[in-house]
Amino acid sequence: MHVPDGFIDAPVSVATGVVAAGAVAVSLRGARRELDERTAPLAGLVAAFIFAVQMLNFPVAAGTSGHLLGGALAAILVGPYTGVLCVSVVLLMQGVLFADGGLTALGVNITDMALVTTVVAYAIFRTIVKLAPHRRRTVTVASFVAALVSVPAAAVAFTAIYALGGTADVAIGKVFAAMVGVHVLIGIGEAAITALTVGAVVAVRPDLVYGARGVTGRPLEIRSSPLAPAAPGQVARADGPVADAARAPEPDDARAPEPDAARAPEPDGAAVPAAAPKRSARRVWWAGLAAALLCAGVVSFYASASPDGLEKVAHDKGIDKKAEDHAAKDSPLADYGVKDISDARLSGGLAGVIGVGATLAVGSGVFIVVRRRRAAAESERG
């Protein structure tokens, strides 16, 4: 849904730029409350992952494709304020390096794809987790519904912006029907990607999912995994899950001591508490980075070549006749390929890897600075 230059006139582009700048400023302040020393690097990874998965266009109808917008995914994983910043970083890198989404339309794209999707998705997500049974599955279901609704909401927002500043003489009713219709289908793909990703992280490290905090009346159970060492106040069991130490005791043969040679032996059948006061997110970070590089560097070659929802509607309704050349059209990475490399697979894969690295570096830098400013403010108050 990247809006190119020329679709929206100058006054409305400026107005949405002001809205976007205000949203980013507010989000920078709000992100200080959401980020800590572990989640700040993960927020940069979330931005890089969204960049990578946005390269994976999937078919939704004859001659039309869709891709992840990412607002719901970012908001649920790292918080709504940080989520706005994550998607904004992605849009900035796409516009500057890859000529994807107009530079004069950057305010439109941030307002539509970062602000609207994040606010709508997180509001729906929080409503569901408050009203539904407090279980881990609720987080995944709420993620699906929130992401599903956020995409057509962005389509409605684009239609409203186009009604105010569209440069082509097209009936708004037709634009609305076409945009919402195709983006409901795209929303299903967005919902599936979001729910699978959130569910995977919740399964191994629910403590790293912002939206899962405080959802359940008891701690979320964590499956035994190399990514999920036991946490303080929990006990390890030989049959897989890690349960809260306060729960009712199991039969004597159901428990096994945690394999940590540094601990004193416990009587048979006794609960063995975890050792580390804090659990590192390093393995999750590396796993996420590997997934992002795989998506951008390899899987993206097999993505659908059909135009996405906005491109298809713009072509069918004649909106694209007003499109202008991108200011970065001569970028060596324009159109997600490396200039002067003739092999399409190598060119696209290398461009994707470069994009993941650049987005990770910029995003991590932003979030680490935000985190340090919070730490400095706390030390001054202390």
Give me some keywords for this one.
mainly alpha; two-stranded antiparallel ribbon; 382 residues; 58% helix; 10 helices
Give an overview in words:
- It is a multi-pass membrane protein.
- This is PDGLE domain-containing protein.
- Its main location: membrane.
- It holds the Pfam family PDGLE.
- This protein has 382 residues and is mainly α.
- It is built from 10 helices and 4 strands.
- The strands form 2 sheets. It has a two-stranded antiparallel ribbon. Strands 3-4 form a two-stranded antiparallel sheet.
- Helix 1 crosses helix 10 and helix 2 runs parallel beside helix 8.
- 47% of the residues are buried.
- About 15% of the residues have low confidence.
Which band does the percent of strand residues land in? Answer: under 5%
Radius of gyration: 23 Å
Order of helices and strands: HHEEHHHHHEEHHH
Let me know the number of strands.
4
| Terminal-residue CA separation | 46 Å
Whole-number mean pLDDT: 86
Tally of helical runs: 10
Main sheet, how many strands, which sense, barrel? 2 strands, antiparallel
Quaternary state of this entry equals single chain
Low-pLDDT stretches: 216-226, 230-277
**How are strands sequenced across the largest beta sheet?**
1-2
Percent of residues in helices: 55-70%
Overall geometric form:
globular
Class per helix and strand makeup: mainly alpha
